[in-house]
Amino acid sequence: MKRNITEEQARHMVDILKKKSELIKNFYHKIEKYRLSGDKQTYKRKLRELLEKEEIKVYGKKIE
Fold it and tell me: Who's near 64: CB < 8 A, 6+ residues apart?
């Protein structure tokens, strides 16, 4: 399903992706072993947990 989004919404999504990408750089080494082993469930769970902790640490709240 395609949605038409405004230019402002597109910029907002790109900003969020950039912020999350920078945060992931801070802890990717902690989850790399799960990615390499192919354990997708554990990798996704750890990624969500660590990303949320990092967002709170850096921004004081979760980014949405």
Answer: 16
Burial pattern 29-61, b for ≥16 Cβ within 10 A else e, equals eebeebeeeeeeeebeebbeebbeebbeeeeee
Helix (H, G, I), strand (E, B) or coil at 24: helix
Residue with tokens 């769970």: 45
- Burial class (CB within 10 angstroms; exposed 0-12, middle 13-18, buried 19+) of 19: middle
pLDDT < 70: residue spans in the chain: 1-2
CA dist., res. 53 & res. 57, Å (int): 6
Neighbouring CB atoms inside 10 A of 17's CB total 10
